[in-house]
Amino acid sequence: MMHAFERFGLLINDRIVRTPVGIASMAGIVDAAYVLRRAGHIGFAFIGGYSIDSPTILAAKSMAESEGRKEFLYDDPVRELKAQIALMAKSDVILGINLRGSSPESFRAIAQAIGDTAVYEIDAHCRQPAMVAAGSGEHFLKNPDKLVAVVRALKSEGVTVSVKIRAGVADDDRKLAETLWKAGADILHVDLMDYGSAKLRQLRNSCPLMLIANNSITSFDRMREMLSHGADLVSLARQSDEQTLAGLDAAITRYADEDGWYNSPKQLCRGGDIRSLTFCCMPVKECPLIPTLARIDLPKDDYIRLKLESVRGTKLEEGRQTCFGSLAWCCKTSSPCMFRDMTLKQTGLSKKEYMRLKRELSDTIMSRVFHDVSSHETS
Ligand SMILES: Cc1cc2nc3c(=O)[nH]c(=O)nc-3n(C[C@H](O)[C@H](O)[C@H](O)COP(=O)(O)O)c2cc1C
Ligand code: SF4
Ligand code: SF4
C-alpha cells in the first residue's frame, strides 16, 4: 500500500498527515472523544474552541447561560487541555487546539504550560457578541495588529500556529493572509462562508501558508473544487459524521492514487492559481500568463529560466516533439494531447509520475514567487 506521505506529501507539526480531510472545531461539541470516534477517516482535527483566560471564560459562561449555546466550561483551561491532549496521545490524527484568548500573554502562557504536541489555532472566527467584546474571535480580524501580536507570541514559544478566520470580515483578506504569513503563522484555516473558490484562489495567490478550506465541504466535487483552487486540506464541522468523512477520505485517496497530484490546480486560463504556472506554456501569445507574470513580478525571461532550470536532469526535460520542446511547458493530463502522451510513452513516464513531477515544479515556482521572509519581517 502506498505510504500517506508519498500520496499526499503533507506534514503538520512535523508529523505525516494521513489524509487531507479533517474536523473543524465546534465549541461544546468537538473534543477528543468526538475526534476519536471518527479517527479512522481523518488526518487532522481541531478540538475546541477552548477559552483560555478570564475575559473569554466569562464570555463562554454567559453565552451558555443566556443564549443556551453549547460551550466547554471549566475553571482551569490548562488542566482541561492537558486532559484532552492526553486522550489523543496514541492517535495518528494530527491534533489542533482551537483557542479563544484576549491577549498575547494568555496564548503564550498556554503554550508554555502545554508545549508543542498540538497545533495552536487562534480562534479569530467567533462572531458571538460576548466573545468579540472580550477581545477575542472576530475582534482579531478587525484588529489585525493584535492578531499579529498573538501569532508572534506563540511562535516565540516554538509551536505550530494556525489562524482560523471567516472570509469577508477583515478589511482585505489577501492583505491579512500576507501579514499572517510574514508574522510567522504556519496555517490559514478559512471558513469561506458564501465566497467559494474564487476567494480561496486569492488567498493562495497571496501567501505560501498551508491552507485549510472550510464551509459546507460535504461532497467530493466540492472538495476537489477547493483543492484545485489552492487548498491543501479541507475541514468539516456541522456535517462531520462518520459516513461523510469516510466518503471524502476514500474518494480523495482513490483520486490521488490515480492522478498523482491530489490537489492539482486548474490550468491558469481556466481559473487556476499561481501553482498552475507549472502547466503554462512559453509566454508567446496574449493569454492570462502575461498579466499573471506581471502581477507576481516575475519577468518573462526569469520565468523561462526558472522552469528550464527546475526540470534539468528530470524526465520533464524530455519532449522534443511537444509544442515548446520540453514537458516543462506541457499541459495537465486531463487535457488530451497525443504529442505529450507520445513523449511520456517513449520516456517510460506514467501520467501519474508526470503529475508528481509537475507538482515538484510547482513547489519550486511557489518558493520563487514567495521568497523567504527576511528576518526583520518576522521579528
Ligand atoms: C455549533 C458550532 C460551534 C462552533 N464553534 C467554533 C469554535 O469554537 N471555534 C471556531 O473556530 N469555529 C467554530 N465553529 C465554526 C466551524 O468550525 C466551521 O467553521 C463552520 O461551521 C463552517 O463549517 P461547516 O460548514 O463544515 O460546518 C462552530 C460552528 C458551529 C456550528
Ligand atoms: S500559457 Fe497556456 S496554459 Fe497558461 S494561461 Fe496561457 S494558454 Fe493557458
Ligand atoms: S504538446 Fe500538448 S501538452 Fe504539450 S504544450 Fe503542446 S498541447 Fe500542451
Structural class: alpha/beta
Ligand types: flavin mononucleotide, iron/sulfur cluster
Q: What's the overall average pLDDT, rounded?
A: 95
Widest sheet: strand order? Answer: 3-4-5-6-7-8-9-10
Tell me what the structure shows.
α9 (173-183) links the parallel β7 (161-166) and β8 (187-191). The strands form 2 sheets. An 8-stranded parallel barrel has the order 3-4-5-6-7-8-9-10, surrounded by 7 helices. It starts with a helix and ends with a helix. The model is unreliable at 374-379 (pLDDT under 50). With 379 residues, it is an alpha/beta fold. It is elongated. The chain has helices at 4-8, 32-36, 54-67, 77-87, 104-114, 129-133, 139-142, 144-155, 173-183, 197-204, 220-227, 242-259, 289-295, 300-311, 338-347, 351-369, 375-378, and strands spanning 11-12, 15-16, 21-23, 44-51, 94-100, 119-123, 161-166, 187-191, 210-214, 233-236. The protein binds flavin mononucleotide and iron/sulfur cluster (2 copies). Residues 267-269, 279-281, 287-289 line the site of one iron/sulfur cluster (SF4).
In short:
The protein is α/β, with parallel strands linked by helices and 379 residues long. It has helices at residues 4-8, 32-36, 54-67, 77-87, 104-114, 129-133, 139-142, 144-155, 173-183, 197-204, 220-227, 242-259, 289-295, 300-311, 338-347, 351-369, 375-378, and strands at residues 11-12, 15-16, 21-23, 44-51, 94-100, 119-123, 161-166, 187-191, 210-214, 233-236. Helix 14 (300-311) crosses helix 16.
